[in-house]
Design brief:
Blueprint (H helix, E strand, L loop, with lengths): L2 H33 L6 H17 L5 H24 L7 H23 L4 E2 L8 E4 L2 E4 H23 L1 H11 L1 H6 L4 H27 L1 E2 L5 H14 L4 H21 L5 H15 L14
Antiparallel strand pairs: 1-4, 2-3
């Protein structure tokens, strides 16, 4: 395989990985856009979604699409529960209190999962076998095609909800100014809960897709992808939905190129190097604007 073919193949791999990062990053950026919370438990919500999908396929003998939908629904309710119990009582507390709570929720989900499913990694069912497609000399396997398709469908549904429905209009109003939106008759508590539900459902879908892609899951699998999705959200401009998608794709492509042409050892380092560069050069991200706050 010559350099050009290898480069394009790594781009394909990177877009697959970046699509998963984008789904997780969308949840980060939706939640931040409304209540300015960096939900560090989001990566562990993604882990729970992967396990629900795993059990639905393994013990429920369900096909991948129904298992994916069940995972999204259950994890969406989990996201709402976490918001009600952990974040809502601290809605007007200092941000550092909410941040510490988010880290606490993250540890709670990780170690509760370890208690029930054990720390041992589990092999995700191979739902696509060795199916692959050769397009002009470039290989797309069944997992990658499925990831592309599901990601496009979910992003299309989210775009429709945000831009074309009353709930989406309420979300955008609450994102602009939560207190004013509440004065105009919008139930901000309901909108925040729905935002957590949708964001958690997208994370669950990403968890199942990762299980399909790497064929293994474990209770600590959410730590690094969660941090990388945060990097993707910051890269695109946290609080901006298209920015989360673009940031996720860019991050996945860079990781794939670094792993393919340098060393997989530096793949994780590349993600955090990007975060440092963005914060130094353009703190608002690619789609964001630098704003100043009065003290």
């Amino acid at each position: 395989m010559d350099f050009f073919q290898q480069f394009v193949q790594q781009l394909i791999n990177g877009v697959s990985l970046g699509s998963i990062y984008a789904l997780i990053a969308l949840g980060y950026t939706m939640i931040y856009g409304i209540i300015k919370l960096i939900n560090f438990a989001h990566g562990d919500i993604y882990m729970v979604g992967a396990y629900i999908g795993f059990f639905a396929i393994t013990f429920g003998n369900l096909p991948i699409v129904p298992a994916l939908l069940i995972s999204m629904v259950v994890t969406g309710f989990l996201g709402m529960l976490v918001e009600k119990l952990a974040y809502k009582p601290l809605r007007h507390a200092p941000r550092i209190s909410i941040l510490i709570t988010a880290i606490g929720v993250s540890f709670f989900l990780e170690y509760t999962s370890m208690y029930f499913v054990t720390p041992t990694p589990r092999t995700f069912p191979d739902v696509f076998g060795s199916s692959s497609f050769d397009i002009a000399g470039f290989v797309l396997n069944g997992q990658q095609v499925f990831i592309f398709g599901i990601t496009i469908v979910l992003m299309g549904i989210l775009t429709y909800i945000v831009n074309k429905t009353k709930v989406g209009k309420a979300m955008r109003a609450a994102s602009f100014d939560t207190e004013t939106a509440q004065l105009m008759g919008i139930d901000s508590d309901k909108i925040i809960s729905l935002t957590f539900c949708i964001g958690s459902a997208l994370a669950a879908a990403a968890g199942v897709l990762v299980g399909i892609y790497y064929n293994t899951i474990d209770p600590l699998m959410g730590i690094m992808p969660g941090l990388k999705a945060f990097v993707a959200a910051v890269l695109g401009g946290i609080g901006i939905l298209p920015g989360a998608v673009v940031g996720g794709i860019i991050l996945g492509v860079i990781e794939a190129l670094v792993a393919g042409f340098l060393s997989s050892t530096f793949r994780d380092a590349a993600a955090f190097a990007i975060l440092i560069l963005v914060l130094l050069i353009k703190p608002g991200g690619l789609f964001g604007k630098n704003t100043s706050e009065k003290v």
